[in-house]
Amino acid sequence: MSKTAIIIPARYGSSRLEGKPLLKVMGKSVIQWVYEKAEQSKLADMIIVATDDQRIYDEVKSFGGMVEMTSVEHKCGSDRIMEVVKRHPEISYICNLQGDEPLIKPESIDDVIRNVKEDDNADISTLIRILTEEEEINNPNLVKCVTDKNGYALYFSRSKIPFERNTSIATFYGHLGIYGYKRAALEAMTTLAQTPLEMTESLEQLRALENGMQIKTSIVDFVPVGIDTKEDLDKFRQILESKL
Known about the structure:
Blueprint: E1 3-10, E2 24-25, E3 28-29, H1 30-39, E4 46-51, H2 54-62, E5 67-69, H3 77-86, E6 91-96, H4 106-118, E7 124-131, H5 134-137, E8 144-147, E9 153-157, E10 172-182, H6 183-189, H7 196-201, H8 205-210, E11 215-220, H9 230-242
Parallel strand pairs: 1-4, 1-6, 4-5, 7-11
Antiparallel strand pairs: 2-3, 6-10, 7-10, 8-9, 8-10
């Protein structure tokens, strides 16, 4: 039977916030907050945390989540996810949900899953949001995306795209780092060599585009709060406390 899995890659090491999956906010670890959002998906059949750290493994087990150990040799989350997928021949569709996005909306997770399950032309899916602040549009750490009229990605860049040569009629889109994959697409992404544009921009999704894959996008209306720094963690805590 064909199944859909949300797989959450989680590492202990982080250059800016060590051990962030295990940091507690209002009594729950960051990884538990993310896992519980994944559980609210209506389209996923299973949720698995993929980690190479015993502490994260034990934490997920402690709140009743599914978790699998993976190699410490993986250089990116896609490879870690693929190791898990190889153990599960029943998995046909995969959602790569980052372990540091505790405010992701379950409906947006389902948008990502729906696009690869229901669109025969989509190898991969992801999310984008409209950018209005010039600071964000010009920020190289915020990846921009341009799409065709059917919502398929044409290109991703750290640069401001499109460039306003003649008139300011363009809409600027920022990319959110969540992906859906058909199984064959994930297998290809983890076996294909790095490509020139990918290495130039340091954006893995360009490997897919350079190899002719189709990436379907959906537009969402929320600003994600990813946890990369102590300030991000404090912001997440403040958002939760404001809802009490």
